[in-house]
């Protein structure tokens, strides 16, 4: 037993007196009640989503799933941009299917809130003036990109722990679950959840849906559509399923929220890569 009254095991796990845990619990409840809208976690930059989730909680794993080209990466990078630039706290982004340059370009577009493809086609576009400010803001941020096509869970853990120790860490974004080298998606999700607990920071992981999902029905996915991916939903705290309609709106359906409400948040595109 250590000085704090905890009984430590060889694996680092601790047996804590309930009286000690209750004190910490009351502190957390008090923090939630004192924040506007009960948002006690890390804000995402999407106000309606923060109101639903209470922010991204420490030690939590959030899986963002959807079909092809629905906006999963833009959605996740919007959170990363908010945390890294607006909140000025460290963010680590693992990019596996896109190069670091591609991710940087998307972040510039999000920060400048413009469609880079349209601006490149029209050099006289007045929006070019916002690029310099966007680049300057991103340069001053603590967003770190890891470009690795097939990292192992151990690779992700080592790099995350190193950044947490040297620069601090507020958020980890993983794109994507299927590209991690592991025995199954179930082990990947469990590994990321374990890492989130050890770092005490939220992790947002992107996931493809099963190729058997028929999006022609209503364009929406269900929690059961993750069933082909090793019971991913079992190991995460929040599952957000993204779908879009013909009017350029993106529905974010919270299908699982451990200890909290579920619901639907509607976002809209403002620029090629920016959701608001």
Question: How would you explain this protein's 3D organization?
Answer:
With 276 residues, this protein is α/β, with parallel strands linked by helices. The chain has helices at 18-33, 47-53, 72-86, 100-112, 116-121, 129-139, 153-166, 185-199, 232-235, and strands spanning 7-8, 14-15, 61-66, 91-95, 143-147, 171-175, 203-208, 238-244, 249-257, 263-268. Strand 1 and strand 2 (14-15) form a beta hairpin. It is globular and about 60 Å long. Residues 214-219 have low confidence and may be disordered.
What does the average pLDDT come to?
Answer: 82
- Total strands: the figure is 10
Rounded radius of gyration (Å): 19 Å
Distance between the termini: 50 Å
CATH fold topology of the largest domain? Rossmann fold
- Biggest beta sheet summary: 8 strands, mixed
Q: Determine the fraction of residues in helical runs and give it as a percent range.
A: 25-40%
* Unreliable residue stretches: 214-219
Q: Give the overall shape.
A: globular
Please give the count of helices.
Answer: 9
Physical arrangement of strands within the biggest beta sheet: 5-4-6-7-3-8-9-10
Name the helix and strand elements from N-terminus to C-terminus, one letter apiece: EEHHEHEHHHEHEHEHEEE
Class of secondary structure makeup: alpha/beta
Strand % is: 15-25%
How many structural units, i.e. domains? 2
Under the CATH scheme, the architecture of the largest domain is: 3-Layer(aba) Sandwich
Any idea what the CATH superfamily of the largest domain is called?
P-loop containing nucleotide triphosphate hydrolases
């Amino acid at each position: 037993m250590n000085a704090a009254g905890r009984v430590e095991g060889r694996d680092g796990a601790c047996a804590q007196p309930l009286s000690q845990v209750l004190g910490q619990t009351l502190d957390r409840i008090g923090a939630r009640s004192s924040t506007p809208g009960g948002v006690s976690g890390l804000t995402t930059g999407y106000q309606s989503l923060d109101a639903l989730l209470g922010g991204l909680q420490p030690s939590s794993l959030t899986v963002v799933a959807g079909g092809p080209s629905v906006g999963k990466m833009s959605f996740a990078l919007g959170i990363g941009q908010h945390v890294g630039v607006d909140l000025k706290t460290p963010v680590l982004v693992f990019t596996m299917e896109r190069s670091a340059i591609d991710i940087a370009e998307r972040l510039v577009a999000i920060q400048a809130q413009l469609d880079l493809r349209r601006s490149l086609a029209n050099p006289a576009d007045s929006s070019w003036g916002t690029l310099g400010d966007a680049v300057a803001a991103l340069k001053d941020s603590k967003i770190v990109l890891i470009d690795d096509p097939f990292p192992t869970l151990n690779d992700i853990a080592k790099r995350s722990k190193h950044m947490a120790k040297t620069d601090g860490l507020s958020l980890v974004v993983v794109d994507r679950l299927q590209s991690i080298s592991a025995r199954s998606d179930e082990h990947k999700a469990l590994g990321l959840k374990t890492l989130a607990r050890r770092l005490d920071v939220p992790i947002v992981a992107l996931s493809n849906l099963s190729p058997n999902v028929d999006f022609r029905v209503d364009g929406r996915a269900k929690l059961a559509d993750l069933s082909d991916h090793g019971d991913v939903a079992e190991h995460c705290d929040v599952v957000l399923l993204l779908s879009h309609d013909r009017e350029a709106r993106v529905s974010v359906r919270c299908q699982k929220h451990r200890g909290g409400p579920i619901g639907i948040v509607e976002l809209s595109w403002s620029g090629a890569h920016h959701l608001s």
